[in-house]
Specification:
single chain; 99 residues; mainly alpha; 88% helix; globular
Length: 99
């Protein structure tokens, strides 16, 4: 069975977490989706690139989540979420593609 790329897992966690929180109106549930996908992505980053890669990309994932909030005030919620998800996915791909 082919593995899902960690870049896709991270992007799906950010988008899915927001979508879950918005559509269910239960922010904690969105947080569960966000954290679950983040944990899976960090595990993949650890396996592919080691602890430093996992820590760096994990920090980027958390920073993207935090940064999406002020960005949403400037460009809107969905554009902000897609922007940070794309940024994290690109960073993940760039760092792990050779490994």
């Amino acid at each position: 069975m082919p593995r899902i790329p960690s870049s896709a897992i991270a992007a799906a966690g950010l988008v899915g977490g927001y979508a879950t929180a918005r559509w269910t109106k239960k922010r904690p549930l969105g947080g569960v989706v966000l954290a679950g996908a983040g944990a899976v992505a960090v595990r993949e980053w650890q396996q592919v690139g080691g602890a430093k890669v996992a820590a760096g990309l994990g920090a980027a994932y958390v920073a993207a989540f935090a940064g999406s909030h002020p960005l949403a005030k400037k460009i809107g919620a969905w554009p902000a979420v897609f922007s940070v998800a794309g940024t994290v996915a690109a960073a993940s791909w760039a760092v792990t593609r050779q490994k």
